[in-house]
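User: Can you help me understand a structure? I only have the sequence.
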Amino acid sequence: MLEQNGVQTVMQQDKDAVNILAGDFNDKTKLPMLCAHYDIVPESSGANDNLASVAILVRLLTTCRCRAVFLDGEESGHTGAKLFCARASRSRIECIVVLDVCGYGNCIAYWIRHGRFCRFFRKLTAGGMKKKYHLLSLPFLPESDDQVLVSLGRPLMRMSVLPECDAQALRSLETYPEYMASLQELAASLEVCKTIHGGPLDDPDIVMPESMENVYRSLQEAFN
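Assistant: Let's start by predicting it. Here is the structure, written out as tokens:
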């Protein structure tokens, strides 16, 4: 699909992972970098975890001036993210946006792990954008490759899509930190958790095109 749309790709691999770098990584221009893991839990469809995010990135590459990395091994120790960090040229990365679990729900949950004054992040999280795309800042999102990629020291944001009830349940932990000890129990009860890691709702039929469209349009507006 990338080649059909004229997007340059390069394979990056070692014994543990095979990443796909999309865009011109030889160009020394500093650009935003988008990331999504393409590996899935064995015996699952991987529809929401994480092929919905992969599809969003493919489309963004054809409409925005950015680069992307499709990462391997997120489900097995973040091996692809570790490989990329070992070989990445930090000077060519303006910021990093990690998409994971972006196909089910009506609320875009994000967390800026580093670099909140990045111009793209400021634009994306401005009041008008938050209202338009239903964006909500949440620090308690399911584990993803952002925890490794943050070591690059570049501005980094994580984005996921959640049902409103899940987002509000997680947000309550900020208001009532005494319940932090129950985080794992709460996370297991979230509706979205049934759509990831091979859960019972991990099926292409549950993926919501409007959820993916919302993520795509918010990032397209921020980057253009």
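Now, to help you interpret it: The chain has a mean pLDDT of 92. Residues 71 and 208 are 23 Å apart (CA to CA). Let me know which part you'd like to focus on.
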